[in-house]
Amino acid sequence: MKILVLGAGATGGYFGGRLAASGADVTFLIRPARAEKLAAEGLIVESPFGNFKTPVKTVTRETLSGAYDAVLLSCKSYDLGSSIEAIAPAVGKSTQILPLLNGIKHLDDLDAAFSKGRVLGGLCHLSVTLSPEGVVQHLNNLHLLAYGLREPSQNELCEKLLPIMEKSGFAARLSPNVIADMWGKWVLLATLAGMTCLMRATVGEIVATRDGRDILVAMLDECKAIAAANGYPVPELQYQQIKTMLTDPASQVVASMRRDMQRGAEIEGDHIIGDMLAHGLTKCVPAPMLTIAYANLQAYQKRRPLTAI
After folding, report:
1. Is 305 exposed, middle or buried (0-12, 13-18, 19+ CB in 10 A)?
2. Between 257 and which of 52, 144, 193, 240 could a Cys-Cys bridge form, CB atoms 3.0 to 4.6 Å apart?
3. Catalytic residue (one of 37, 76, 105, 185)
4. Is position 224 annotated as part of the catalytic site?
């Protein structure tokens, strides 16, 4: 199976690198400068599960040709338009696109460009960054990639892809209800991003304040209510797991969006917080905490790149 991975940054570099190192037929679609570096040094991954360096095949937008069986898409939401243009030459009649973006709004754009029958559902739980030297650095023990079909015609490729992923060394799961799983992650992430960006603090620091825990749980419950109103209730066990994670007084966790704000970078505020709020408004679900969190992110976007905060 021929797999194209868009980019060799943090997420794409980690999953694509493990696939390549396990012998899968993987090609990275990247910029010329990154292609030169990878040709000279290979793709380097540092992980609690073992460091490795592997040679990889690469193409650029100028050299990409021919269809692939699967395209792994892990761009930021604000780069989705250019990413769709970049991968278009690789999408044939039987190609399946596996997006790992947060939220669900990107599915509409991908469906419009390629049709729903060519776009799988997908998500990942991964904390990873790319060092200034181009090394993919895995930061904890989470490295789950879950995916699943949205149309019955996608079943054959989903089944063929699973053993390839399982051989790679990360946790791979073929989900029977991937959209519900995507909503579950979105509830977690919207709360984590909304709160750590609003408070400019880690989970533990927020919980240590007089009212921080209650405010955080209030935002979590808003997101949970919005998911349920849209037909994707979070199972009670999963909700309790998320709640425990987000109220841990020892937690040093912040959302990657908070780190992006600290360096004055573009953020996915509209895609993660704004769209969650929009889904709540459509179903008449009150969401005062999300409203405040989204106003905070909108204000940040208007200020950047004047200062990092």
Report:
1. exposed
2. 193
3. 185
4. no
